Amino acid sequence: MAKGHRSQIKRARNEQKDTRPSATLSYARVSVQKACFVLDAIRGKDVATALGIVTYNPRYASSLIKKLLESAVANAENNNGMKAGNLYVEECYANQAPTMKRIKPRAQGRAYRILKRTSHITVVLNEK
């Protein structure tokens, strides 16, 4: 257990906090594998290029990631005072979220399980 008063502990924890602008989408109704196809395409790119990629990408996950990227840019401008032209996608990843389990009836009275996968998608930006 950490020593010190509660305010000292909180202050020490907040000093280690990541100050890079980011945005997170929780419980997105897309599997991690499908989201990673789009995330791999924009990782390391500047924001204007990344927005162009997700705008014209035909995958469903790209529409979700486009809104997430725009949100991260807005967070950078409003909360951190950064310019949108200097930003690039430093990190972007998708983690597995809870899976919804559904049942589909099959032949001869059998039940077939359908897994509807969800994911938590995070985009982290930084300045050049």
TrEMBL record:
Q: What are the start and end residues of every segment in region (Disordered)? A: 1-22
GO MF: rRNA binding; structural constituent of ribosome
InterPro entries associated with the record: Ribosomal_uL22 (IPR001063), Ribosomal_uL22_bac/chlpt-type (IPR005727), Ribosomal_uL22_bac/org-type (IPR047867), Ribosomal_uL22_CS (IPR018260), Ribosomal_uL22_sf (IPR036394)
The domain of life is: Bacteria
Q: Does the keyword Transit peptide apply?
A: no
Residue ranges with Basic residues bias: 1-11
Ordered alphabetically, the record's keywords are:
Ribonucleoprotein, Ribosomal protein, RNA-binding, rRNA-binding
Q: Which GO terms describe its biological process?
A: translation
Any one Gene Ontology cellular component term annotated for this protein: cytosolic large ribosomal subunit
Q: What does this protein do?
A: This protein binds specifically to 23S rRNA; its binding is stimulated by other ribosomal proteins, e.g. L4, L17, and L20. It is important during the early stages of 50S assembly. It makes multiple contacts with different domains of the 23S rRNA in the assembled 50S subunit and ribosome. This protein binds specifically to 23S rRNA; its binding is stimulated by other ribosomal proteins, e.g., L4, L17, and L20. It is important during the early stages of 50S assembly. It makes multiple contacts with different domains of the 23S rRNA in the assembled 50S subunit and ribosome.
Instruction: Describe the protein's quaternary organization and the partners it interacts with.
Output: Part of the 50S ribosomal subunit.
Recorded hits in NCBIfam families, A to Z, give:
rplV_bact (TIGR01044)
- UniProt xrefs under PANTHER family: CHLOROPLAST 50S RIBOSOMAL PROTEIN L22-RELATED, LARGE RIBOSOMAL SUBUNIT PROTEIN UL22M
**Family the UniProt entry places it in:** Belongs to the universal ribosomal protein uL22 family.
Q: What is this protein called?
A: Large ribosomal subunit protein uL22
List the lineage, top down: Bacteria, Bacillati, Bacillota, Clostridia, Lachnospirales
The encoding gene: rplV
